[in-house]
Amino acid sequence: MAEQIRLTDIQKHFTVYERPDGKWALLRAAFSRKARRVQALDGVSFRIGEGEIVGCIGPNGAGKSTTVKVMSGILTPDAGECLILGRTPWKERIAHVSQIGVVFGQRSQLWWDVSVADSFALLKDVYAIPDGQFARRSAELIETLDIGGLLKTPARQLSLGQRMRCELAAALLHSPKILFLDEPTIGLDAVAKLTLRAFLKEENRRSGVTMLLTTHDMDDIEALCRRVIVIGRGRLLYDGAIAGLRGKYAAREGQDIDEIIAAMYRDMALES
Amino acid sequence: MKSAVWRDARVYLKYIRMHFLSGLEYKGWWMMALQVLLVCVADFLPSFLIFARMGDIGAWTWERILLIYALAVASFGLAESFCRGFDYFPWHMLRSGNFDRLLLRPRSLAVQVAGSFFHIHRLARAAIGIFAAVWALSRLGVPATAFSVGVIGLALLGGTLVYSGVFVLCSGIAFFTIKALDWIYILTNASYQVTRIPIDYMPGLFRRAFTFLMPMLVISYYPAAVVCGWGEPVAAGFLALPAGAAFLGLSLLVWKLGVRHYQSTGS
Amino acid sequence: MGKGKGMGVAMDRTRKFSLFVCSARACIGLFRIRSIESLQYRAAALSSGSISVFWALIEITVYTVFYRYAAHREAATLTLAQMVSYIWLGQTLVPLHPLSIDDELLAKINSGDVGVELCRPLDLYFHWFAKSAAGRVGRFWWRALITLGIGLLMPGPLRLGAPVSAAGLIMFLVSVASTFLLSAAYGMLVTAVRLGITWGDGPTYMMMLVGGVLSGGYLPLPLWPDFMQGFLYVQPFAGYLDLPVRFYVGAIPPGRAAATIALQLGWTLLFVCAGRLVMRGRLRGVIIQGG
Known about the structure:
The complex is a heterotrimer of chains A (about 270), B (about 270) and C (about 290). Chain A is of the alpha/beta class. Chain A has ten helices and nine strands. Chain A folds into two domains: about 190 residues, Rossmann fold (3-Layer(aba) Sandwich), CATH 3.40.50; about 70 residues, no CATH class. The longest helix of chain A is centred in the C-terminal third of the chain and has 18 residues. By secondary structure, chain B is an all-alpha fold. Chain B has one domain. In chain B, helix 3 runs antiparallel to helix 7 and helix 8 runs antiparallel to helix 11. Chain C has eleven helices and no strands. Chain C has one domain. Chain C has about 290 residues and is mostly helical. Chains in contact: A-B, A-C, B-C. Chains B and C meet through helix 2 of B and helix 2 and helix 8 of C.
């Protein structure tokens, strides 16, 4: 199994400005501002091989999104090494992003006012996909995602479930080798979630695309990932099979995966 | 390398075409165009009325002032049409977080931003500017020779680059501060108000600032002066394009700094 | 029965009064927040103040050139010193008037959240009226102060002069106060018109623009053609800035002071009535549409 993603000791901090609180807080804020340093990633390292599906979990604000942003090239870390398909994302942005796909559950990459088909046509030019390949690939995605009936509709008129299917097609049109999914099932109903998971699994089996998904939905992880990464307080807390997490906590917490995770987050809070 | 530039251009044109077509579906566009037209007329009304009341200032008739003003307005309108994405960038892309998406696409960021918006009604400003310039030229008795058409064409081209540069500059600064951006209005809608002052009476500060800092007079007054023969050296009429390119180039540097800042702070 | 009715009226009155108090409190809160925001972003206030100053300097230069060198210098109506004061005060007042619909209200109109507002036990018209006015003044008084201050500190011929007399200054202040009511009332009328339009801001922008042009903010009204002067005096938008400024520079005879203020208030009343009327009609439409 060839290695595709390698993060070594990634560090990233942010500066947040705090407003004073207490009496006259707003007015005092007008004349003073306190800067505070927040360590978002504090030495994160992991490797992911070709064709893996890895789930990334962690409480809100733990550093999951920051990790995804570093890997997709949106954010430059302070220190550490990140190699994806042999490239450093923020140094070779264009070459890097041609090889990856990113789906944000909360944000659309389709053009709001134009039909889905027109959005696909624009993406063809953006990614410079050759005609033949585009025809083949889009036909394939339209069929497996069952979005043939939605192509003439502007994105703003789609339901969330319909839109998510179109988003997936849009992210995979250029046949990326790696797909990042940031909370892809957020807000979806049960049927849409099942469809999406089935598709991801099938796509991974068929074209061998590597997937890394962040989520709060443990069912996503159980359905898709054999391996799970837990990030908390900017550190990598666990990396391994989901069964391992079970082994560690099940005796105390029972079998329910949500309770196991909750127990884990509690432990993390105790550590510090 | 060459093919990347070509692909960028292709993507830009596709974007503009898409916005144009979906813009036409929007019922209110002609009303918005009318509104822009009215704004342009209102902008120039004060000059017209005061010339009507108080008469010319020596050789400075209102046709002369109109010509200079119209060249600047037309350039502004063209830039506003074809670089609308940068004009909108701080508020409609940076704030909403949609800029992340552009970073994930394998095309030049500047091209993607420039093509991210296009509003048909903004062409009204360019149209009225060009129309007013042509009308003023005919009133001033300037024949449509290859020379005059060439100088005016280059002025518009350079002017479009200058005002595009202002939008790019504004977007670049927006990466660092979005609250204190209002002053950029001095370089956009307020800048061409300076052309209402006859050049002989223009305070040196204005004249130098709008020649050397932002070459607004280089794309309006000097081409007009050369075409009409107001005693400026002929070469000055041809500076619009290089000045515009230089201004845009410097603005793009600021933009690049801004992008780098964004990627390291993520905000 | 009569007694019961009387009690009902009394209750209605207390209810109305408590609603008014709620609205007033909301306005004061909003004014405070906006003020502090604008204080907090001092760079932003200075930045927007610089626009007013820049604009004023251009205008002053243009009029100075005309007053000194134009062919018909004798056709000038105000003196140059009066004109300079006119421009500074104009630039001070202009940002305080609505030039577009309040952002917050527009967002509500566009997203259809107006329906939610309707469910609140408030007089929507006065609630919005006060909120948009408080928000705007809160946001811009800093900028106005900066413009005014810089105008007063300018060297000789560029300086904002002293008021013509103590009486002139008092009339100016009274007139400015009624100016706020007037422009807020017109702003509400435009907002009410916007309520029924689903396809854009074109018409409302034009309504605002007409107000701006006829206020004297583009060209001082005394410099408009002579045959228009009668019309310009009685039309509502002179009340935005032309009339108060004329009091300041002494271009309105004291005998006409009362009539002028009455004119401003009369237009205000008319705009309020028209705004309420249009709004009532539009909101009925919203309810029917919303189902």
